[in-house]
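#random but structural
TW: two for the price of one
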Amino acid sequence: MARILLTAENDVLRRYLGEKLKRAGHFVSRVSDYDIALTLLLETCHDVLLTEVDSEDPRGVSFAHEARRIDPEMRVMFITGFSIVPLLVDEDDEDGFSDRLGAPAHLSQLVDEVGRLLVA
């Protein structure tokens, strides 16, 4: 199974998603602070970064860019207000992120989406 870094400011969301992923057999590090999350990324490899994106707070996207600079092989999935969106990597893309997004999924499908992301 995968080692997942979950960053979300919302305690309930972080707890819910973390438990759901743990029950599926993944090792999950749950963090509410981007600076702590960056420290974890420097100390430990993760297969997936699962992070929030909020239209009022652009730090989630900036954090994802920084995380991919630290570990270019790590997969990234954004949590939006109502869904999760896997980010597909395009090697020709300047910043390593593609503008092609997978279909949004309801949070109850999170484990399946993480599985698909890992084999993409």
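TW: number two ↓
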Amino acid sequence: MRWLKAAVIIMGIMIVAMLVTIIVTIFRRMTAAKPADAPAAVSAPLTPGGPPAAAASIDLALPAGATLKEVTGAEGRLVLHLVTPDGRESLMLLDPATGKVTLTIALHPAP
């Protein structure tokens, strides 16, 4: 009988401990900072601090024969990953507000 009483007390303590753990976990998840949502696709140039301007189109000349492999956003710029027919790769940083290429980086394998 004594061991049964000890088992009931230990299980009661475990139930209380688990309940406290669940309540603390729920509280932390409710008060945690929410991750930023993925940015929406931009169809028009943006003016800092203002609403999007009217829809516009930008003509961007790529190097001859180059194909666009990937487009990524970084710090208010678009990064275009290009591959030429001979296998050379480059990155072009495009300012969406002006439509101008701000930087071109040629990628080369390390010797």
